[in-house]
Amino acid sequence: MNPSGGLFWHLHAWRSQKRWAPTRADIAQWLHSMPAHWTSSGELLIVGASAGWMMDSVWLRGFQRVTTVDIDPWAANLFRRRHGAALKACGTALDCHTHDALTDLSQTLRSHPGAVVLLDNILGQLRFHHPSVSAACTQITQVMHSLHGRRWGSLHDAFSGRTQRFPRGLGLPAMQRSEQPTARPASDADQYTVDLGHFSQGLRAEGEWLDHLTEQLFPAQTPVHHIAWPYSPRYCHWLQAGWVGA
Ligand SMILES: C[S@@+](CC[C@H](N)C(=O)[O-])C[C@H]1O[C@@H](n2cnc3c(N)ncnc32)[C@H](O)[C@@H]1O
To answer: Which of 30, 65, 180, 200 has its CA 20 to 30 A from that of 93?
Structure first.
């Protein structure tokens, strides 16, 4: 059983498209913030692409070739169905593969030497794929080492948990952009806290939230986008997303 993909995930994503639309729009905005010259590498490698439920076809069309990898046997066909026609229409080649991309990520990366790599909402899920927190942390660290010297981005869960019911007319907090706290001079630290405090209050969290173990992922000074994802009516994920140069 795949704890972060599979049939249940696809059904849930299909039914949730309307509720997730603002999150998809925020993610599209972040995707388009990738340095423009990176598309000149020609290829995008998406790890954990699933069916691309949260993916923006328009952004994909900037590449000459899009390669997806997911361990979920449903993912490749569904990704082709959702994005294949839009990519074909503008001449972008699409290859969808089904295998474990993380156990030997270095090998997968060697097969796509110039590609920009997108870890697409996979790293925050790894704690569900391992029997212990330390095993998940070890794999996240290995992934980061493998990416050294590459152009890559990651969208991933930072925290998730229950929320209060949203009063009518009051939406989720808008996307926020911040530097990593360690990258900030001391005088700016308060500003950072205030920004994210505003964001996290907007999530209307209830009870304890789950830590998805991705705190150390980005190098210092990476601009990070914070995005709310109302996974179900009273359960929300706090996503973080960033681009890292070679
Ligand atoms: C939350 S879903 C990703 C959602 C996707 N980005 C979208 O827009 O629909 C996480 C995905 O990671 C995949 N995954 C988990 N471990 C994997 C691994 N070792 N190799 C490849 N894919 C993996 C799961 O099968 C699942 O499809």
So the answer is: 30
